[in-house]
Amino acid sequence: MQTELSLFADHAYLPDGWHRNVLLQWDAAGTLTAVTPGTDAPPAGTRRAAGPVMPGMPNLHSHAFQRAMAGLTEYRAASGANATDNFWSWRDLMYRFAAKITPEGLASVAQWLYIEMLKAGYTSVCEFHYVHHTPDGSRYTNQAELAQRVVDAASASGIGMTMLPVLYQYSGFGSRAPREDQQRFINTPDSLLDLLGTLRAARPESAALRYGVAPHSLRAVSADSLRALLGGLDATAPVHIHIAEQTAEVDACVETEGARPVQWLLDRFDVDSRWCLVHATHVDANETQALAKSRAVAGLCLTTEANLGDGIFPAYDYLDAQGRFGVGSDSHIGVDWRAELRLLEYGQRLTRRQRNVLASTQATHVADRLFDAALEGGAQATGRAVSGLQVGQRADWLVLDPDHSSIAEHAPHAWLSGVVFCEHGETPIRDVYAGGQKVVDNRRHRDEEAAYARYRVALADLLK
Ligand code: NGQ
Ligand code: ZN
After folding, report:
1. Which of 245, 281, 332, 340 most suits a substitution to test ligand 1, by most atoms within 8 Å of the C-beta?
2. For the whole model, what pTM was predicted?
3. How confident is the model at residue 3, as a pLDDT?
4. In what order do the strands lie in the sheet with 239-243?
5. Would you identify the CATH topology of the domain 57-66+99-382?
6. Is 57-66+99-382 in the same CATH topology as 3-55+389-450?
7. For the domain bounded by 3-55+389-450, which CATH number is listed?
8. Where are the domains of the chain?
9. 336: Cβ below 6 Å to ligand 1?
10. Which residues are identified as catalytic?
11. CA 209 – ligand 1 centroid, Å
């Protein structure tokens, strides 16, 4: 049956660029066992990819339930002559929505979302999961009920997952008591580790599933609770945290803690390659250099950051300092890594009035440089072996439609540019493999009709 675990590609994007006649082979566990360019005669019976093959992208930041509110907060909610909506007024609306999530609803929303991710070419997701309890804050009979629903949605869809149960303890700097509308999120380090233990026992780690933790933000934990949380984990487990997304939180951190958030964290904790600092939008020049040096990943979520009015991350300086990053769809206002990479570059073009800002002398094509970096940084943030078409990595890849107008007639060196920058018609991503399984075939996920029907039922229920 070996031929079922192999695929021949006329062109495949390997770590050092496009290669011809590549034979991909993997094992029953979904791990690549051989990647052989220049295979002139593939074994008889080997299937052929329908177009160029490239790695799937990890999505390093997701709050699955927020998918169901996409498009529903784009109106002015603040009243009065000088009224302005902002991140914090959006958050109030989001909390009202979070209060209505049920286990069944979350399962349906998450499964549809993960199908959308796969269709868009995301083959892994880091789920920053913080709705843990019933609406009044009491525990479900199974304390890991909601997290387990999300893990199950991922495995049903085929996407690889890093599940990051969130520690949310306080409502603001200085260990302020949680708000009424945060009760569903609240844990202590011990209760969160206990929840993680329950979840891990029910759904053990595998090649498709890894666990880590997410202290929500410096607003939501203290130095002591963060230390207690990290002390209860194995030393390699991924740690993700929201940081410095809004200037108001930077100001509050300076006021109560005497330092800016990124600096505060770097000064007190061993921030290294297991860490992902989500957003990190507001970093000064020193923090930009120090974050780059730490080898942590900056988790950039460009479409959400634009949607919420966060600000612009200093991407040019950070990449120039060899900083690592990956991309995430976060609130899911869009689910498309191509849009995240495009907006990363466009933010720099618009503020600098230049072009091809994030290219370098070694990597002259912006899309190639950003794709390679987001793949590597995203894989690092997942803590899973998902960094592209190499032996030992997960068999996750995308097959491009060779007739799509973004790449047709173009030479291979221009393909990634077309995929990232062209916005014409349907996606150029035709097929998607995750863990060696073809989960998307000709732009259709194997379960999409049924999952979409369930999503609509859940959404109708949430909007009642
Ligand atoms: C979240 N989302 O946890 O869903 C946050 C908003 C907060 C983003 N930061 C809540 N995009 O930061 O307090
Ligand atoms: Zn977030």
Report:
1. 245
2. 0.98
3. 44
4. 239-243, 275-279, 297-300, 324-327
5. TIM Barrel (3.20.20)
6. no
7. 2.30.40.10
8. 3-55+389-450, 57-66+99-382
9. no
10. 279, 330
11. 24
